[in-house]
Amino acid sequence: MPNSSSVSEFLLLAFADMRERQLLHFALFLGIYLAALLGNGLIITTVACDHRLHTPMYFFLLNLALLDVGCISTTLPKAMANALWDTRAISYQGCAAQVLFFVFFFGSEYSILTIMAYDRYIAVCKPLHYGSLLSNRACAQMAAAAWGSGFLNAVLHTANTFSLPLCQGNSVDQFFCQIPQIVKLSCSDAYLKEVELLVFSFSFVFGCFVFIVLSYVQIFRAVQRMPSEQGRHKAFSTCLPHLAVVSLFVSTDMFAYLKPPSLSSPSLDLLVAVLYSVVPPAVNPLIYSMRNQDLKDALRRLMTRDVTKSKK
């Protein structure tokens, strides 16, 4: 019986068979990828360079932008290369690296979004304790915990998944390497260990989701009790972008993993995978910058300063 050591490469799902459509998909995803790099890069640079934005909210936003860049860079470049060169192949090591980094960035991003909900809860419901509960040290520790737990989770999943004996071929029914697709190729009952890990991960994700929901219930109650309309507007303007990002993140994930088997098809699964792995990293910078005047002003100051320096 062949095992995983006999598999030297995997075959990813192609976006299209016709050469013209392959090149069209390459151009489309190149545009999305560059937009994601530009948007998240501007947020990272602006927050890092403007001391007015050195606050917990923007510190976590910087972490989110870094994770978005990592997440989309794990999947899209290989898919674009395959479309450009008309191939489906990815090496065994490359597939393992994709699984490792995608689970790492994806899990860490969900943890950061949960921490950002806590940040908004403290800012709105306990503003007098904001400085003590979200000190620089506390923020650094929470961010480190998010990145560290994401990495540990990714290592466990990757090691467990690629220790499975594979005897169902090497075709992955997705445009990047996913754990469920690799597990489908297994011919051993050992895949139950990976299922147990996935159940644990989903339990953690569900716990984070409940925490976010409860945080926003308390936030909306506190906002309704605010006597000032300006205060309510400010609270909503800082909370709504995060809530929109969480909604996009959770809704696409839930549809991808909880949809009925009767709805599954290669085309639909491919579309859903694009929605939750490609769209959020590209759209998140737009969501956060649209209603955030402080971020817009900081970006304007940064660009003005660069223009002034170039003229001297």
TrEMBL record:
<keyword id="KW-0297">G-protein coupled receptor</keyword>
<comment type="function">
    <text>Odorant receptor.</text>
</comment>
<dbReference type="InterPro" id="IPR000725">
    <property type="entry name" value="Olfact_rcpt"/>
</dbReference>
<keyword id="KW-1003">Cell membrane</keyword>
<keyword id="KW-0812">Transmembrane</keyword>
<keyword id="KW-0552">Olfaction</keyword>
<feature type="transmembrane region" description="Helical">
    <location>
        <begin position="197"/>
        <end position="217"/>
    </location>
</feature>
<keyword id="KW-0472">Membrane</keyword>
<dbReference type="InterPro" id="IPR017452">
    <property type="entry name" value="GPCR_Rhodpsn_7TM"/>
</dbReference>
<dbReference type="GO" id="GO:0004930">
    <property type="term" value="F:G protein-coupled receptor activity"/>
</dbReference>
<comment type="similarity">
    <text>Belongs to the G-protein coupled receptor 1 family.</text>
</comment>
<feature type="transmembrane region" description="Helical">
    <location>
        <begin position="96"/>
        <end position="118"/>
    </location>
</feature>
<feature type="transmembrane region" description="Helical">
    <location>
        <begin position="23"/>
        <end position="45"/>
    </location>
</feature>
<protein>
    <recommendedName>
        <fullName>Olfactory receptor</fullName>
    </recommendedName>
</protein>
<dbReference type="GO" id="GO:0004984">
    <property type="term" value="F:olfactory receptor activity"/>
</dbReference>
<dbReference type="InterPro" id="IPR050516">
    <property type="entry name" value="Olfactory_GPCR"/>
</dbReference>
<dbReference type="InterPro" id="IPR000276">
    <property type="entry name" value="GPCR_Rhodpsn"/>
</dbReference>
<keyword id="KW-1133">Transmembrane helix</keyword>
<feature type="transmembrane region" description="Helical">
    <location>
        <begin position="138"/>
        <end position="156"/>
    </location>
</feature>
<feature type="domain" description="G-protein coupled receptors family 1 profile">
    <location>
        <begin position="39"/>
        <end position="288"/>
    </location>
</feature>
<dbReference type="GO" id="GO:0005886">
    <property type="term" value="C:plasma membrane"/>
</dbReference>
<dbReference type="Pfam" id="PF13853">
    <property type="entry name" value="7tm_4"/>
</dbReference>
<feature type="transmembrane region" description="Helical">
    <location>
        <begin position="57"/>
        <end position="76"/>
    </location>
</feature>
<keyword id="KW-0675">Receptor</keyword>
<keyword id="KW-0716">Sensory transduction</keyword>
<keyword id="KW-0807">Transducer</keyword>
<feature type="transmembrane region" description="Helical">
    <location>
        <begin position="270"/>
        <end position="290"/>
    </location>
</feature>
<feature type="transmembrane region" description="Helical">
    <location>
        <begin position="238"/>
        <end position="258"/>
    </location>
</feature>
